[in-house]
Request: fold
Amino acid sequence: MGLSSTRAEEASQAYKITARPIAEFRIGSSEIRFGPLEFIGGLEMTSRSHPFGGLSSFRFLDAGRRFVGVADTGFWFFGALSHDAQGRPDGIDTFTMELIQDLEGNVSGEKWTTDAEAIAVKGDRVTVGFERAHRIAEFRLAPEGMGAATGELDFLIPAHELRMNRGLETVAYAPEDSALAGARVAVAERSIDTRGNVFAAILEGPLKGVFTVARSDNYDITDGAFLPDGALLLLERRFSMASGVAMRLRRISAESVRPGNVADGPVLIEADMGYQIDNMEALDVWRRADGALMISLLSDDNHSILQRNLYLEFRLHGE
Reply:
């Protein structure tokens, strides 16, 4: 049964977030360099408010400060990240959540229709990817109240190829000065073709069309963002009962993101349970005031007492 837009507005509220700083990425080690990435710091976030959690994707509205994101329970979330005098993340301020509305201004409250997994932002346009009931919807950015979806976008990938719980996991804008000319790109989590490669698509522009991303080592794609040079940075996750959770970042070459191609690229970092990670789901790339290129990650706790909501921040060297 759907909920009215009035009910959706009532559900929008602020939450107090307790953030415990994480000083070491590798557990028990003061090491800060991990290949081309330098660990800056992190946060373990908790809240007594039940809706908090399930954080699937986010984008900064101001570099390293205000952000917007989506939770896979059908919520928007907004907040602001703070840093200490040494530039390390030290808290989350003004955190709010509100229910995501459909084209009619209603919210269903059902996982089947509200499983938001990806977000992209450009100006006042917000694009959200959903799995299970596979779709890409557009909204107008309004932190005071997001309102109903304004439309839906053709995701190009044949709908029958999208697996129910392994669908659209990434939506990202390419740089305007790249060959993709600012187009949005969507990538699935683990919807694979006959060769085992993951379906993806360039949704608009001169190179519009479907391509695939090479899959390896049993990793699934959980988010992505473009680097300034046009390469696509993908966050990937692996889980097994024997070894637990692992994550890695892979840099997909700009030239391979083309219709009909199998896109691929090198791994920049890989981490297992010996590091401060959890179910890493969200990624964004931004510029620090001193010009450094930064990578931020969020985890999804699945509303489980056995998992954590983490924020991790790195500097990418040698971009």
Observations:
- The longest strand covers residues 89-99.
- Residues 1-10 have pLDDT under 50 and may be disordered.
